[in-house]
Specification:
Metallo-beta-lactamase, Chain A; alpha/beta; single chain; Rossmann fold; binds zinc ion
Length: about 450
């Protein structure tokens, strides 16, 4: 049963009852919703068993509701990779801050009880780390048979994993968020490719016929940076603090070294810098494109949150990386964008998906020098804006390849907008006619038996 993240990229939370043992895969918070619907709807479970939660990676839409779910089910074991556990020390307090700041009044107080600093600190000590490819055997309180679980490298961000579960003859693979092409820092996934009965797969890019190659996008980005900085302007790149920020720091530094762009001061800020330190701590032990390469070795100047109006990037051509990626109001990137919009020689480069309801989307499609709505305000921009696509999600072709290799009896599509899931399902139905395809709806139970 999906308690969130069905037919959308929301509060991702898959619930499975396997031979009497209750398993959650991910307990995410909705990335934008701040009402009670931001939490996975665990009330739908009624009296079903709840024993273990596997967290596939530390993005808020997969990890952020864990304090809430653990408050509801205090006996729950929370299991993640060692890097995800370390990243949770940064991501959970940050998620808690966002929740406290703009939660709506319909959220009962108890929902937030486990989000204060002490409660999060205590919870984190209970998180269990399971390294890649090691197996864990467990059986729930009313479990009838043991289940074996293992994590497999998902290629999305540091610590990301797909989960393989086996119980007797039944096997199931949950991809989490996954990527099958190398990024700059993070190498491609190595998920199991053998047959499983059930494949639960993300479908973020399910409707995108042709994803532009990273090389093409890199050339376009270099061209944009060159145009802006030749005019004495600075380039703002709004990006997620976890994943995108680290990829961008290393990519921009390599572009400077290869002479694709001039040597420019690089400004980064806030949480992204702390996350980069966790990347560095795992640069030898976890999969990396260049083992031993430390992100903090790239010279970076810190953005001072209270002094953005006086930042050196306003005078000297620079590159500025700031979260959030979709310009959510009140974030560093949102505040910096206000300064950029009034400067005709400056430029903003959007590098990832912009959800239609976000200020990032409004600005990225806005006409130049004409009024438009940005987070409820009528504004005009004179700066340049350009969109690029550096996805950390598997392409449609690679999704089809995975399904063709694994040949599951049942395929479950999640973590995608309805059109992504539908378009992928249609294509796969033609290629693999015997396979059952399920696009689950939130709160509906499905029986996924062995084939
Ligand atoms: Zn993710
Ligand atoms: Zn996600």
């Amino acid at each position: 049963m999906m308690l969130g993240g069905a037919e959308e990229i929301g509060a991702n939370c898959t619930y499975l009852s396997i031979e009497g043992t209750g398993v959650f895969i991910d307990t995410g918070l909705h990335p934008r919703d701040r009402s009670v619907a931001a939490f996975p709807d665990v009330d739908l479970l009624e009296h079903r068993p709840t024993d273990v939660a596997f967290i596939t990676h530390a993005h808020t839409d997969h990890l952020g509701a864990l304090p809430y779910v653990m408050r509801r089910f205090p006996h729950l074991r929370a299991i993640m990779t060692p890097a995800t556990r370390d990243l949770s020390h940064i991501m959970l307090p940050n998620g808690a801050r966002l929740l406290r700041n703009d939660i709506t009044s319909d959220v009962p107080r108890e929902h937030l009880e486990f989000y204060d600093r002490t409660a999060i600190d205590q919870l984190r000590f209970a998180f269990e780390a399971l390294p890649y490819a090691e197996t864990l055997q467990f059986r729930g309180y009313s479990g009838r048979a043991p289940i074996t679980a293992s994590f497999h490298w998902a290629g999305h961000i540091l610590g990301s994993a797909g989960v393989l579960l086996q119980c007797g003859r039944f096997s199931m693979l949950h991809t989490g968020d996954t990527m099958f092409d190398n990024q700059t820092v993070i190498p491609k996934a190595s998920l199991p490719r053998h047959h499983v009965d059930v494949l639960i797969m993300e479908a973020t890019n399910g409707a995108t016929e042709q994803t532009p190659s990273r090389r093409e996008e890199r050339v376009r980005l270099a061209r944009f940076i060159n145009t802006i900085t030749e005019r004495n302007g600075s380039v703002l790149i709004p990006c997620f603090a976890l994943g995108k920020m680290q990829e961008m720091v290393v990519m921009l530094s390599s572009m400077m070294q290869r002479g694709e762009i001039p040597h420019l001061p690089l400004h980064t800020g806030g949480m992204g810098t702390r996350i980069s330190k966790v990347y560095d701590a795992y640069c030898y032990s976890d999969p990396m494109m260049r083992p031993g390469l430390e992100i903090s070795d790239t010279p970076q100047e810190s953005i001072i949150r209270d002094e953005i109006h006086r930042g050196p990037y306003l005078k000297t051509p620079s590159l500025v990386l700031a979260s959030s990626g979709m310009l959510n109001t009140g974030t560093l990137s949102y505040n910096l964008a206000q300064l950029w919009m009034a400067r005709p020689n400056f430029g903003i480069a959007f590098i990832g998906y912009q959800h239609p309801t976000t200020p990032g989307h409004a600005l990225s499609v806005s006409p130049k020098k004409q009024p438009f709505d940005l987070a409820g305000r009528r504004v005009t921009r004179t700066c340049e804006v350009e969109r690029f696509r550096f996805s950390a999600h598997v392409s449609r072709e690679s999704l089809i390849e995975l399904v063709t290799d694994v040949r599951p009896s049942t395929l479950v599509l999640m973590h995608g907008e309805p059109e992504s899931c539908d378009s992928l399902a249609l294509d796969l139905r033609e290629r693999l006619p015997g396979m059952r395809i399920c696009i689950p709806r939130k709160g509906v139970s499905y029986t996924l038996s062995a084939g």
